[in-house]
């Protein structure tokens, strides 16, 4: 792929995995944070309301591609528990931070990721484009797993206002990566947001199936759509060695 000058990467289930235990820990820490701030709820009832709110807000976000934020879900869940707390309330901001702190402890690099990023740095412009509601947490996760220094551009849907596969977020990636979609590769695991999104933006996608091939659980909050499979001519890789070999193809 001699014409390629820039590579964009997805984050979750592409460069890193997150142990599903993170979700339980995250909710425990969220409840602890609320309790510290004087908001006492029944954990079971709260978690039910929280999950209902997540479902509702994510469903809405899927409709128009606009990103949502955890503060709205927490505010809605608290309302269902009889607490009127605005999404902008600092107690909710603290709960969001504590919630995501669990993700720092349970995120791991997929084997070979650092070696691959070392290999492509210098040869290509390297960027990250991730769907994530709370951008500071995504940045912190990258730091925790030791990957932040490899990206000249980090784009997070929570900052952009829209999620992949919305064309706007890929436009931002193209701008940041030199302006010519023909010279950009985008590597991701999720057929709809990553592969269909990149194709729609005129970018060559690469489908990474490491997590699928190893039967690993997806990071919390991520679900593949049923029966989703990229077009057969989209290159598929299972290891970073496969990816380096693909880049070296004429
Ligand atoms: Mg992903």
Layout of secondary structure:
Blueprint: E1 6-9, E2 16-18, H1 21-36, H2 43-64, H3 70-80, H4 90-106, E3 107-109, H5 113-120, E4 125-130, H6 135-144, E5 153-156, H7 157-160, H8 167-176, E6 184-188, H9 191-200, E7 204-208, H10 210-213, E8 236-237, H11 240-248
Parallel strand pairs: 1-4, 1-6, 4-5, 6-7, 7-8
Antiparallel strand pairs: 2-3
Helix pairs in contact: 1-4, 2-3, 4-6, 5-11
The site of magnesium ion has 7 residues, from loops.
Please tell me about this protein's structure.
The protein is built from eleven helices and eight strands. The mean pLDDT is 95. 48% of the residues lie in helices and 13% in strands. The strands form two sheets. A six-stranded parallel sheet has the order 5-4-1-6-7-8, with helices on both faces. A two-stranded antiparallel sheet has the order 2-3. The chain has 250 residues and is an alpha/beta fold. It is elongated and about 60 Å long. The termini are close together. It has two domains: 154 residues, 3-Layer(aba) Sandwich (Rossmann fold), CATH 3.40.50.1000; 85 residues. Bound molecules: magnesium ion. Magnesium ion binds next to loops.
């Amino acid at each position: 792929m001699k014409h390629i000058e820039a590579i964009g990467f997805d984050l979750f289930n592409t460069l890193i995995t997150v142990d599903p235990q993170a979700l339980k820990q995250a909710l425990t820490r969220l409840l602890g944070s609320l309790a510290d701030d004087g908001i006492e709820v029944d954990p079971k009832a709260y978690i039910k309301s929280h999950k209902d709110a997540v479902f509702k807000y994510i469903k809405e976000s899927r409709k128009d591609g606009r990103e949502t934020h955890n503060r709205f879900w927490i505010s809605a869940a608290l309302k269902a528990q009889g607490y009127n707390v605005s999404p902008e309330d600092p107690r909710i901001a603290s709960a969001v931070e504590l919630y995501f702190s669990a993700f720092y402890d349970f995120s791991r690099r997929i084997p070979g990721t650092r070696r691959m990023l070392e290999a492509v740095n210098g040869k290509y412009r390297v960027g990250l484009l991730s769907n994530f509601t709370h951008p500071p947490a995504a940045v912190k996760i990258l730091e925790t797993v030791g990957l932040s220094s490899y990206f000249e551009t980090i784009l997070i849907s929570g900052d952009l206002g829209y999620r992949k596969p919305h064309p706007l977020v890929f436009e931002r990636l193209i701008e940041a990566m030199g302006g010519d979609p023909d010279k950009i590769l985008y590597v991701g695991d999720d057929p709809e947001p990553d592969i269909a999104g990149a194709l729609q933006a005129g970018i060559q996608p690469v489908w990474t199936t490491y997590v699928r091939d190893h039967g690993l659980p997806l990071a919390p909050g991520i679900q593949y759509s049923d029966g989703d499979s990229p077009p057969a001519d989209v290159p598929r890789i299972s290891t970073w060695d496969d990816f380096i070999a693909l880049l070296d193809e004429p």
